[in-house]
Structure prediction request, 640 residues.
Amino acid sequence: MPERSQNDRTMIEISHVTRSYGAFKALDDASLVIREGEFFSLLGPSGCGKTTLLRMIAGFDNPTSGTIAVDGQPMAGIPANRRPTNMVFQSYAIFPHLNVEQNVAYGLRRLRLGAAEEKRRVEEALAQVSLTGLGKRGAHELSGGQRQRVALARALVMRPKVLLLDEPLSALDKKLREQMQVELRRLQQAVGITFILVTHDQYEALAMSDRIAVMFGGRIAQVASPKEIYQRPVNRQVADFLGGMNFVKAEIVEENGSSLVVDTLGFGRVKTEKPKAFVRNGGGATLGIRPERLRVLWDDASSKFEVAGRVIERHYFGEITHLIVEIPGLEKPLSVTETNDFGADDIPVGAPIRLAYDPDALVALAD
Amino acid sequence: MTAIRNILSRWLPAYALLYVVFLYLPVVFLPIFSVNTSPSPKFPLAELTLQWYRDLPNTPALIDATRNSLMVGIAAALLSTILGICAARAITRYRFPGRRAINGLIMAPLVLPEIILAVSMLLVMLQLGLELSLVTVVFGHVLVCIPYSLSVLTSGFEGFDRSLEEASADLGETAFGTFRRVTLPMVAPAIISSLLVCFTISLDEFIIAFFLTGTEPTLPIYIWGQLRFASKLPGVLALGTLLLVGSFLLLTVAELLRRRAARRTQNAGGAFA
Ligand SMILES: Nc1ncnc2c1ncn2[C@@H]1O[C@H](COP(=O)(O)OP(=O)(O)OP(=O)(O)O)[C@@H](O)[C@H]1O
Ligand SMILES: [Mg+2]
Prediction:
């Protein structure tokens, strides 16, 4: 997919937004800037406050404190029906007493465009979501995927500045979900509208977004591009939530402004970039390395950076094999994923093994 | 066991048939005797006639009673449906402590003996110093209608997805516009159905009306008064037949509307199923 040129104009500015229910804070001092034309995802486990934040942007709920601005305009006191945002609901919220066309035209009615223009825009929106010809279908005569498209068309036809999507794909089966991920991304690039997607599926967020905000317990832990979130998570929680990560205990030898030199038992002395959120807590630190960044060294191949150990478990997953390797000195065995091209699926349990790694793949993590 | 089951399976249809005959035969007699020339309800029928029906509009007392009944029926239907809407919306929309208890209390008049209800209402009205009139009858009827109204309305409102109203607001519609374009069309069938059911109940209700009315009779009270005169019986039968047919039609329409409303709102959440 070609990278669309993106400008740096701010579309949404969320500053110090807190939403409390009594003593409980569903959202705790969240600050965020979302750019125009960006595909932005809010990612986090269930109950972390994603929907709460999205509903406050849409105007269904108000911050206890803090401000939200859309396109430079403060949203305080502006009701949902006068905001330049539209939402695709998790339940789709298709009006059951209207057919597809009437659903899509629902919001246009108030704009008084005239019958011809209204019809043209409805047709255009239906074409955008590949529903041409289904305009006369009743709301009950649609499959889950089609309902999702109607909800999308109904919001897009309004040409909002921001489209909000609350877990739009979670009700679909796996295959349809993957197909819709691609389509949604393509659609966003075609229309150029700022999309904010709420999801708890890390692969969905990684595959679709320009940038991701990872949230835990009402707080925003990290905002970055998918690649950076995956490769340079700021803390153990983020690292753990986005796929598997091996954690290695380390001793800090040297700390300065941007880098960290640590000693580990398995990987020796390593120099890494210091994460922004890093707070020194005694002399210890944690290093992380993704399972796929460890590669099996066959026969007499060697690498400048390697660790040696013993295979204690092997799990077969078709195109890859998952090995659990015990390394002397490390308190926890390492997870390794290796493609099966060279026979990783045939390595016997108990066999000695050597693993190569790139020291850049070792990242220091805040706790 | 199997022996008993055999006997049961053989005789059950017969029992069911007998039951239905016993339940509905008297009802069938009403229209049959209402077209009989002889004033006494006996077989064999003398001759067929529509004379009794023709006489109905020429009875001023009957016209008055009909007008009273219509007024009471419409007022009771409107009041109990409005109250029912409030209760049904609260019960289906919000989760609050005592929700079940309140629901139970509202439904209670369904199982209380009507005569007890009527006597206690009479006592209360007199205590409050209210003069007995059609207004007091309306109050009494509202009490017995609300349980029906509530059950019709809750089945219509249940499953009404809150996000439909939010979606409407999100698409730029005002609160009033949302009510008109989304809420009302979706719950209208249930509301009309509740109005029809309440109207029918009020129209046919005798005991409470008998205790709470002053000098103005409703139709059932008028009918009861006429029964003292043997010669008036055919007219009563004709009137009864009309009431029967009217009630049956209204209730059928009401049930069709209720089902339509329930189907509509339930399908709104179909994406989850
Ligand atoms: N009306 C409310 N009253 C009290 N607590 C609430 C209310 N709405 C939400 N919460 C709480 O706020 C927290 C965040 O809720 P939110 O719906 O934003 O989570 P989420 O991240 O969208 O989760 P999910 O992935 O399950 O949808 C939850 O712990 C929830 O219980
Ligand atoms: Mg949510």
